[in-house]
Amino acid sequence: MINKQEKADNSQLSADSEAIYIRKSPKKLTVITAVVLLAVVVFNILFSVIGDRQMFYIDLSQTLYKSGKTNMYTLSDDCKDMIADRVIPMIDQTNEERAARGEDPIKLNIVFCSDRDVLEDNELTRYVSYTARAIAKRFPDHVSVQYIDISTNPSSVQKYKVNSAATLYNSDVIVEFGSEYLVQGVNSFYYTESTADKPWAYNGEQRLTAMIMSVTRVESPICCITSNHGESLFDGNGNVKEEYSTFISLIESAGYTVQILDLENEDIPENCRMIITFDPSEDYKAFGELDEGEVSEIEKLDKYLDQSKSFFFICNPDTPKLPSLEEYLEEWGVSVNRDENSENYVIEDQINCTNGGVGSVVVGNYATAGLGATLTEDMRKSAYPTKVIFGNSTAIAPADNYVRRYAAATETTDEYVYYSYYKNGVVRTMLDIFTTYNTASALTNGEVYEIATDSNLFKLMTISQETKQLQETNLTSVTKSSYVLALASTEFLTNEVLDSKSYGNTDVLLSALRNTGNETVATNLSLKGLYVYEIKDEAAYKDCNTSAWLYCLVLIPPVLVFSAGVVITIRRKYR
Fold first, then answer.
1. Three-state DSSP class for residue 240
2. How far apart are CA 78 and CA 88, in angstroms?
3. 3-class SS at 55?
4. Are 210 and 518 in contact (CB under 8 A)?
5. How many Å apart are CA 365 and CA 432, to the nearest integer?
6. Alpha helices by DSSP H, 186-274
7. Which of these, 114, 417, 503, 519, could form a disulfide with 214 (CB 3.0-4.6 Å)?
8. Cβ distance 13 to 20 under 8 Å?
9. How wide is the angle at C-alpha 373 spanned by C-alphas 369 and 376, nearest 5°?
10. Which 3 state secondary structure label does DSSP give 422?
11. pTM here?
């Protein structure tokens, strides 16, 4: 048996050991606590950095609004498949061609014009940023995302401006591949009803994919210049005259590959988005003038414009009457001003001119509203818009079969006149880009034939549009357009004018070329509905905003901590 003394000694020994443990344990606990806290901090930093870079997240953004439930931050399988099938092969092919030339491979770049934390702090720009990053994560070898703060580094995006007067905003999104690029404002990534202030659906996948498909075509879009109608652009050997070399360079600067086209004997290339006829002296061939086996040039042009493409007609007072071509142009609202003897107008303005009161180099009057005004919007924002000049100019008139209409003024636009045509389901409108001032006169055979008035200004440059609605989903459709531009002055395009920093002709030309080139449309990608702004069905709203994942993330951590605490407490008590 253990005697009382041994028990006392054991008790004393136990007490001494416990005292030693108590004295030492705070140091151990302090070290352990510090190590655990440091490990938690390091783990959080690493997980945050790696998780953010690799986009580790659970998308809980199920929403319910018109289009049904959807996840806002998750890239859809349709989007992944479309890029994989139609974009990645083109990027690979381009890089194979570059490698064969000894050039380095390139990626498709999605460029945002602000810091990422700023963009993702805003709901509208956050969705676009996440979509772009999701695309780059899925295709890391082909797509990259860049964030540039243009407020502190504006020169970094200078190459993305349509013209020197264009403005890029912090919310703009740029998609670039090689020399091709497109710029879109954040509003274009959303659907907004005309009667609502807030967007109701997000179509960022569709818009970004469309931009990506447009800029990754293996070949640049083609601009064809017709050569078989005695066009004054060419010399006697079929080469472009030196005085118009800058004009050709600017077409290329707008992203086109220039190709000369014999429209009578050649087919229009499949990737042609713009055809230019520069001051022709011979008419287009129509049905009544064809020999056996010949194809109507007018029919070729009509089928081409039926595919949402663009045509640019350039003339001057010396351009002869071209019955077949002009009859077709009248279907687009374009008619060349002539007197009763079919003599072309010569426009003069001795007040608004740049050649010392002679009046033959007319200063253009900007259209301030309507479609034509959108081409010069950036230029007109300046306190003193750059002069745009028209030397040796005739005038464009609205075709007789077009009806003069008025668009009422709004809070942001002036009242303006336009001309419209409707027949057999075809809707076309013709609008001004530039007119004369009311100080101009029209001369024929050296005599004044007509004087401009405020209600009848001579048209120097116009744009006609035919719009078509293409159904995408049961809820949405996309509008695609064909354009016909008409310019009444060939001197507008000479090197002397386009190379001058004093005039805005270059900016007008670049804007017209870029903005009338249609981009690819990515159909069959569903839009994503945003949250309801008014709770009309409490049950639906509740379903919309609850999730098993949400309950798991909210409840599991505290339950685990509580359970661990209970276990530790019980073990300590009964140890």
1. strand
2. 15
3. coil
4. no
5. 10
6. 204-215, 245-253
7. 519
8. no
9. 145
10. strand
11. 0.68
pLDDT at 507 > cutoff 70: yes
Tokens standing for residue 27? 């140091």
Contact 395, 450 (CB under 8 A): no
CB 156 within 8 A of CB 172: no
| Closest to 526 (Cα-Cα) out of 23, 49, 78 | 78
Predicted confidence at residue 27, as pLDDT, reads: 67
Specify the range with the lowest mean pLDDT, choosing from 254-263, 396-405, 519-528: 519-528
What is the per-residue pLDDT for 420? Answer: 93
User: Phi/psi of residue 333, each to 5°?
Assistant: 85, 0
CA distance 93 to 90: 5
Helix (H, G, I), strand (E, B) or coil at 452: coil
Greater model confidence, 574 or 450: 450
* Residue 181 β-bridge partners: 176
Mean pLDDT in residue range 512-530: 64
From residue 178, alpha-carbon distances to 56, 143, 175, 205 in Å are 31, 12, 10, 22
> Which spans in 123-228 are helix H?
123-138, 204-215
The three-class DSSP label of residue 498 is: helix
pLDDT digits (tens, 9 = 90+) for 535-572: 444 444 444 445 566 677 677 777 777 787 777 777 76
**Predicted local confidence at residue 91, as pLDDT:** 92
The token duo for 252 is 């290329």
Residue 80's beta-bridge partner residues? none
Q: Do 219 and 253 touch, CB atoms closer than 8 A? A: no
Q: How far is CA 378 from the centre of its chain?
A: 15
Q: Which residues of 328-458 form beta strands (DSSP E)?
A: 334-336, 346-348, 361-363, 365-366, 389-391, 396-398, 403-407, 416-423, 426-435, 441-444, 447-451
Q: For residue 419, is pLDDT > 60?
A: yes
pLDDT(247) > 90: yes
Higher pLDDT, 376 or 163: 376
* pLDDT attached to residue 237: 87
Query: Which helix (DSSP H) or strand (DSSP E) does residue 71 occupy?
Result: none
The first and second tokens of residue 237, run together, are: 């050997």
User: What does the block give as tokens for 80?
Assistant: 């992944």
The DSSP code for 154 is: G
